[in-house]
Design a protein that fits this description.
Order of helices and strands: HHHHHHHHHHHHHHHHHHH
Strand content: under 5%
Shape: globular
Low-confidence stretches: 88-96
Structural class: mainly alpha
Radius of gyration: 23 Å
Largest sheet: none
Helix content: over 70%
Length: 401
Amino acid sequence: MNLEDVYRAEYGRAVAVLNRALGDLDLAEEAVQEAFAAAVTAWERAGPPPSPAGWIITTARNRAIDRLRREATREARHAEAALLHARDAPPEEGAVPDDRLRLIFTCCHPALAVPAQVALTLRLLGGLTTPEIARAFLTGEATMAQRIVRAKAKIRLAGIPYRVPHEADLPARVRAVLTVVYLIFNEGYVAGSGPDLTREDLCAEAIRLGRLLVELMPDEPEALGLLALMLLTASRRPARTGPGGELVPLAEQDRSRWDAALIAEGQDLVRRCLRRGRPGPYQIQAAMAAVHSDAPAAAATDWIQVVRLYDQLMTVAPSPVVELNRAVAVAEVAGPAAGLALVDALDLADRHLFHAIRADLLRRLGRAAEAAAAYDEAIAWAGNDAERAFLARRRAGLAAE
């Protein structure tokens, strides 16, 4: 495992472990960043240690102690003592003994605005950069950086506790926590930048956290729905890329390669949600994923049912992105012209998916020149190399159609 892989897999846990001892997110994050910077030189010289994660956490703890000693205030000495005690203390036990989940609930405290809760948690736990988070929120990088700094300061100044809240306090936090896990999974499933289509570490971490949330809140149908959605979506992973890592769209995937065990588990969760009769956005999206997983081939997809589910989703959680995805389903039922009319009514020109969908619909309508221009826009806005390469291949194929 190289240093980049360790960073992606362990950054959030290291920050969470340090924060438990320090009670200061800024200091915890800075210490972990210093540890990774030190690893660049140390690991290049001596090679990776047997336990890379342990090396990072130990080094970060030592860096934090050094900084606290330099500050030499009474408060810093107390924090240093806590760190020294934490070095040899047994693991903290509890109903959900997981530092990363505790940190999510700390960041998702009702004292913070929901956008700040989600942004801060994505930064600390999801391993997302500030530009990646800004893209997810459709806002500027500077604005997002300020939002994250203010949120960390408020946690420190308000003394927000580092723990999973009591059962009575969970409903006030659940919306933001589920949003965080969902966005972590999305960034893993389609990476916002880089050479690869996916970040498997983020997908696996989101599913792990989803399972913990279901364990913590077994009667929360949206937690069940989110886990079902992630499992059913992740089931397609073996068929999403070709031998060279190239993107394979849903309609062209070899469904015999989909993970049958994940499909069975996800569909069972969807049935459990349906029995509760309290539909929410994640449950509805999970039901859509179940419709796709039921179809042995793309041509057998029940698109009428998918459109109905999108109509339901628009009722409970309307958004331009939902409208865009609904347009894709409408195009399968009523034809590409109907889908294009819906797409062209949306103001999503800064999203690569908007241009990619327009390009595909224009291609299907035989409007090659317009399709080429839309593909060019999609390529310009696409975040990762795999998506850009796929769009470039589709654009090049226009001449042969």
